[in-house]
Amino acid sequence: MNPTHFLSVAAHYLFRNRTAWQKEAVPDFILRVSRNPVNYWAEFGLDIPLCVVLTFEGLRRHDIHSIEVFLTILLGLFIFSYLEYAVHRWLFHGSVEIIVQGHRAHHNNPQGYDALPFFLPSLVILGLTGVFILLMPASYAFLLSGVMAFGYVTYGLSHFTIHHTHFRQPLARRWAASHLIHHYHPESNFGVTTPLWDILLGTRYVIPDHNRI
């Protein structure tokens, strides 16, 4: 076969099938990666050092005072708690099929190791850091991002603990039950670390009152 003709046929075949490959091979690869235990723990391996570095960068500067540190920490935790709720409700239970499919795997196997690709949360945090630097002094930006990274790490560890631990302490059992209810009532209880936004936005699960007329 003429080499030029062969390359032309190959290019035509690849171009014709590129859309199908993008629709099938790439999503399948992402889903396989997201279900791998190595990916699950590698995410912590990136996020924890990033949290430490960002927080240290914010605190080591001399242009931020104690009360401002405290308020920045509160703001970071507040923002993250909303992002945790919003991503879970409108993205994981949204309309983007590959994301919904990945989260559905967790609902089908709550003790599995389903997670976002390990590098993605760190990239998002770094992107937010860049935005914050444009809006405020660098010390506040780094500290705010570090606190949000801490929130994400806490979320990840909390989520793992809830699904792999049998709590005996009543308060801990009640906290864990709040998320476990979500697996039976996926339209409720989107918050994992806190029920705050479920309460504020009306998605907190309420036991039906069968005696009500």
Q: Low-confidence stretches at least 5 residues in length (pLDDT < 50)?
A: none
Based on CA atoms alone, the radius of gyration comes out at 22 Å
Number of domains: 1
Mean pLDDT: 88
Share in helix? over 70%
Order of helices and strands: HHHHHHHH
Distance between the termini: 81 Å
Task: Please report the total strand number as a whole number.
Answer: 0
Judged by helices, strands and strand pairing, the structural class is mainly alpha
Q: Give the overall shape, derived from the CA principal axes.
A: globular
Strand fraction: under 5%
Concise structural overview:
The chain is mainly α and 213 residues long. The chain has one domain (35-201).
Could you give the topology of this structure?
Blueprint (H helix, E strand, L loop, with lengths): L2 H32 L2 H23 L6 H27 L4 H12 L11 H16 L2 H27 L5 H15 L11 H6 L12
